[in-house]
Design a protein that fits this description.
Layout: E1 8-15, H1 21-33, E2 38-42, H2 47-52, H3 56-59, E3 63-64, H4 78-88, E4 94-95, H5 104-112, E5 117-118, E6 132-133, E7 139-140, E8 143-146, H6 147-152, H7 163-166, E9 170-176, H8 178-183, H9 188-194, H10 203-207, H11 216-230, E10 233-234, H12 237-244, H13 266-274, H14 277-289, H15 303-316, E11 321-325, H16 331-337, E12 343-348, H17 351-363, E13 373-376, E14 389-395, H18 404-417, E15 418-429, H19 431-443, H20 464-471, E16 475-482, H21 484-498, H22 508-519, E17 529-536
Helix pairs in contact: 15-22, 21-22
Length: 538
């Protein structure tokens, strides 16, 4: 299987290498402040790693870092070393060996233990790095740049010495070590001088010897700032695996020409915009099939807004037959099924999302009697008899259909499967709300939020007047819902407070915004998502 990446895709990782807790904390603080997911490979039990990667989704970011060199403290044989590390972190799906020690038996050992990928090869500054399919069945993501390899080659700790390599196409896995980062180590000689401090537990003692010039910390800072300023895509290793694991062959059937179109890249946006309606549907299915369906919020990054949308649905549902079209991995429907009696059906065009719904149902411990039925189908052609449901809900589904014609056809399908007087609860994107939000952002010197972007290639939001003219023959509008208060705080106040840093969806102020919006939902109809409660006319 062969891949090519049309532009740089970055991934940041770290070999923990028995670093002291204070060094691990400094490195993790650095990445958290910049809202970048770091994938650590652990050598030992670290309180900092356990605390910061405690929830289910973040646990998937942690790999293991086995030491197969003589005198290893992790075990006396490869099997014992693997067992000890996987007991330490059973959620691990990746490994990278200390000193990149590699062999066919080692790869086979981890493949048999259920690992999915590794990063056990260093291709320092090589252009067009790509995911490799190992003979063991593991996917391999080569390391493009590593801090100690850099200074062992005698290169100055300045990005200018290697910048041209960072703009070349291909996968760029960046690897660093907490101790080298915390001490700002510039070269081998200085490392030999301070390496005894790896055993030092008092960070104040260690900081006396932090190198003041250009070293590991300064070049890592330059690299990350450069990547962010250039707008290059950053992905975690698990996300890369899910994007690469099921890559389809090119249409001409020549697998050597297969191209990895990664969500969030300019290449993905360009391909989608130039595609036919049929091709757009297939491309979007591929994008969703490659997402990590085990993530709770696999289809929406702003989890606070998602919870407000679910509350809107919950308040308007009663027991009955309920269909969720474009259900994704089922999080919304599973949340509703835990609180409302009903017969729930979830439908999505992505087989991977439907698989994820089954996994999420187990994790959310939804009672078997309440558990929804999930099926794969195209929402434009609903596989149900007329008058089958009391409620239909959609949450950011119609806005991802390829064309206006598809959107209007789907509205007619929704009306067809609803019983007389049934309700359609519609949560979809609106260009008007985005325009109102951007007008305010512009007046406050904030960048405009684009309607379509590499992170959201399929966005086809509605114009409210046009939408309501198409709704009028089919539905009575019972209620319009805006979340202007949440948008005002999360998209205006939040970025103003943290500037020049970027706002984060998981910031506490967004949690506060959600609480306020639950009491006072709307200020000035701001925001690119709104809700309708609609009653079917028959």
């Amino acid at each position: 299987m062969s891949f090519s990446l049309a532009e740089p895709i970055f991934c940041f990782t770290s070999d923990i290498d028995w670093a002291p807790e204070w060094a691990i904390a400094e490195m993790l603080d650095f990445f958290e402040q910049r809202q970048i997911l770091l994938c650590p490979f652990i050598t030992h039990d670290s309180a900092e790693i356990r605390r910061r990667y405690a929830d289910h989704e973040k646990k998937q970011l942690v790999g293991i870092h086995p030491n197969f060199l003589p005198g290893s403290t992790q075990g006396n044989s490869p099997d014992e070393i693997a067992d000890n590390l996987l007991t330490l972190w059973p959620e691990a799906k990746a490994y990278r060996s200390h000193a990149f020690v590699d062999s066919t038996p080692i790869a086979d050992l981890f493949a048999k233990r259920g690992l999915l990928f590794d990063s056990n090869l260093c291709l320092f500054l090589q252009p067009r790095c790509e995911p490799l399919k190992h003979n063991s069945g593991l996917m391999r993501f080569p390391v493009f740049w590593e801090d100690d390899v850099h200074f062992k080659r005698g290169l100055p700790c300045e990005l200018s010495s290697i910048r041209e390599h960072f703009d070349s196409p291909g996968l760029k896995v960046i690897n660093l070590h907490p101790f080298l980062f915390a001490m700002n180590v510039p070269d081998v000689k200085y490392y030999q001088k301070v390496k005894h401090l790896i055993r030092e537990t008092d960070p104040q003692v260690a900081r006396i010897d932090v190198f003041e010039g250009k070293g590991t910390r300064s070049i890592v800072t330059e690299i990350l700032d450069y990547v962010l300023n250039r707008g290059y895509r950053i992905m975690s290793l698990p996300a890369l695996y899910h994007a690469a694991a099921n890559i389809p062959a090119s249409q001409n059937g020549n697998k050597s020409d297969s191209v990895l179109i990664v969500e969030g890249t300019a290449a993905a946006l360009k391909l989608y915009q130039s595609a036919s309606t049929k091709e757009k549907a297939e491309l979007l299915r591929d994008i969703y099939d490659h997402r990590n369906v085990e993530e709770t919020y696999a289809t929406s990054r702003d989890h606070n807004l998602r919870e407000l949308e679910i509350a809107f649905l919950r308040e308007r549902l009663s027991p009955g037959d309920i269909l969720d079209i474009g259900c994704g991995n089922g999080y919304t429907l599973l949340s509703l099924a835990k609180e409302i009696k009903g017969n729930f059906v979830g439908l999505d065009f992505s087989a991977e999302m439907i698989r994820g719904a089954g996994l999420l149902a187990e994790r959310m411990k939804v009672d078997l009697q309440s558990r929804p039925d999930f099926c794969q189908a195209d929402v434009r052609h609903l596989p149900f008899d007329s008058d089958s449901f009391d409620y239909v809900i959609s949450e950011r589904c119609l806005q991802n259909l390829p064309s206006r014609e598809d959107q209007w056809a789907t509205l007619a399908e929704i009306h067809r499967v609803l019983r007389p007087g049934g309700s359609y609860l519609m949560v979809e994107g609106t260009e008007d709300g985005l325009d109102r939000l951007n007008e305010l952002r512009a007046r406050l010197s904030l960048d405009l939020i684009p309607s379509v972007s590499p992170d959201n290639v399929s966005s086809l939001k509605f114009r409210e007047a046009e939408l309501e003219s198409h709704l009028e023959p089919l539905f009575q509008i019972v209620h319009r819902q805006y979340w202007g208060t949440y948008y005002l705080i999360s998209r205006i106040l939040h970025p103003l407070l943290v500037a020049p840093d970027k706002p984060r969806f998981d910031s506490r102020i967004n949690t506060v915004a959600r609480k306020i919006a639950a009491v006072l939902p709307d200020i000035d109809r701001l925001g690119h998502v709104m809700g309708y409660e609609l009653r079917a006319k028959k």
